[in-house]
Amino acid sequence: WRADPEAAYRAKVEELLARAQFGERWGRHWLDVARFAESSGKELNMTYPQAWRYRDYVIDSFNEDKPYNRFVQEQVAGDLLPAKSDEQWQENLIATGFLAIGTKGLNERNVRQFALDVADEQIDTTTQAILGLTVSCARCHDHKSDPIPTADYYALSGIFQSTRTYYGTLNLAVSRRGSKLLEAPVADEVPVKTFSPRELERIRERLTEAEAELREAGRGGGANNVIRLRSVVTGLRAQLNGVDENGRAKTFLMGVQDHPDPVEARVLVRGELDKPAQEVARGFLQVLEGEQPTTLPSDASGRLELARWMSAESNPLTARVMVNRVWQHLFGRGIVPTTSNFGASGQEPSHPELLDHLALEFMEDGWSVKSLIRKLVTSSSYRQASTYRVAAFTSDPENSLLWRFTPRRLDAEALRDSLLAVSGQLDLERPLGSMVAEAGDAPVGIRLRPEMLNRPVSYRSVYLPVVRDALPESLALVDPSDPTIVTGTRESTNVPGQALNQMNNPYVNRQPEEQANPLLRQEDNSRDRLRRAFELCFGRLATDAELRGAGVFLQRFRETAGETIEEDQRVNFLALSSFCQGLLASAEFRYLN
Fold this sequence. Notes:
Elements: H1 5-18, H2 20-33, H3 52-63, H4 68-77, H5 86-95, H6 97-100, H7 111-131, H8 150-161, E1 163-166, E2 182-183, H9 197-217, H10 223-241, E3 252-253, E4 255-258, E5 266-268, E6 276-279, H11 286-289, H12 303-310, H13 318-331, H14 352-364, H15 369-377, H16 390-395, E7 408-409, H17 412-422, H18 435-439, H19 450-453, H20 473-476, H21 496-504, H22 506-522, H23 526-538, H24 544-561, H25 568-584, H26 587-590, E8 591-592
Antiparallel strand pairs: 1-4, 2-3, 5-6, 7-8
């Protein structure tokens, strides 16, 4: 650094881009946009035990620096892309989980209404995430602010209605719209779940007994009893169908496939199923397509053509939307602040020429996200200090002109990971599968209970279970992404509950204790321990005034505790861990400044 600060900075950037944790951090940002979750949500919240495969696919794609245009194509139409091997074919199938992991109204009685709702959710997610447009607003009427007529919405709907979605929930009395899963061409090397021969035999015995009870109940055992037993039988059969004869879990995937008989959608007046109007050919958005509309094949859904059209260099939105998302995460605010709405109802870009320039360079660099990040973080704009200046603030209070780095609170995952990191407890190994995969197919709240979701684990937060309406407590208080919708920009609140959780949560309180033990072992005196605690928690050196104040705190703690606790070693540990708890509960720990 002393010899060449610029070279040292760039070397650190390259090191960080090459780390496996890069994909975990930036993959989580995309999972926000993809509304990733491991359950169906809505009135009947059923688990998605295979959703974790899409999560891992996203993380691996960012680590590989997969070209973003290819990343888009795989998620929208991976099942239709050519593949050179079974492994690539499987990766492409997993990628289409993007279309399968959305919310589902599984207790919908009308199968046609259910299909329309699934297609609508897929249209809404795809167009917001990739094009930055709220196309689903045109389901019931022409878009009120953008040039998207209802006919265009149903042209897209025809593409998704011609697609079969495999999400894999059970058919139960209250879950009428269950689905199969896709069996993978390559089996897992290590199965997520394995039943021992004894467990397997026990499940078979329980199934035989339940089937006998169901037959008996069918002869007059009461409707409620029949419904209950059907659910039991369905669940036991699902457990057996999910493993081979040795009890090893089969490899299943969430994803999509083309319907053998593509359909042309009908416009529905006000979006109502019983008010069909004219039929429209499957197609794209006229306002973006140009003068020569793409002709879609009559024997396929058109998803492959849609994916290629969205990821083409001629598409005016795709590159700009992704560049803006990357900018937003690095600078705290997008060039277009409404990151998933580039339409007329969104906010205008603060620097439109800059957005155009970066989008062109993004495509010229092979749609490389790492190259884009490298370009931005080595710029002078990114490397501004966060120092407050009265004159600059008076002229530009929202920092639109980037006269300083905008201080911001750590997001939910970064805050939890930081707690574990400073205490030395963070496990950087990727866990196999997910807690939801362990629970299997079930309504949330039955086999997947809150105590399981909040089980203390030390791996990174991106691998915690993401269950709609039941997020882990360690994330729920700190404005996590809402997994029911596309989240381009998270909320960032500052409320007392966040600080109180840092002070009183039993799991959080164990971290300063874990931090204090090695400090006592590794440092010879109190001043060195305090200095090291500041470095770990705040990433900076402590001032002399802070060290004096901390020393006074330790002394007063010892004097007070000494009246009730005789062992000096125990007193020193409690004093230091209490001080560390204060650092971890502070605003400086929670904010990036």
